[in-house]
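Exercise: predict the fold of this chain.
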Amino acid sequence: MFYGYLADLTVAVHFMFVAFVLFGGLAALRWPLVAWVHVPSFIWGGLIEVGGWICPLTYAENHFRMRGAEAGYQSGFVDHYILPLIYPELLLGAAFPKSGFFWLGLFVLTFNAVIYWRLWRRRSKAA
């Protein structure tokens, strides 16, 4: 049961990291110091998707699930609502092609690059 909680905690941290990768640039528009943490995060997150790699948090979650002798949830909240947001193939099934991850990663990198370009322009105009 303890390992199940650790796995759930890992999923929650993973979800928060994904949300930060996607939307942390918007926070940096308001609080520029956030950029020091967000830029490496969104580059990492984008490269994970573009490269087709697996995030270390996924390995940690799987480790905790196996240690806890769990195969997964039986329609629990995390399994039903959060995991498909982190892993789109669970949400879309076989209809989600492998190239979709490349496009997701490219979107993350482009979206955040535009935000930081705007932030840079705003700061350079103020100077």
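Check your answer against the key: The radius of gyration is 17 Å.
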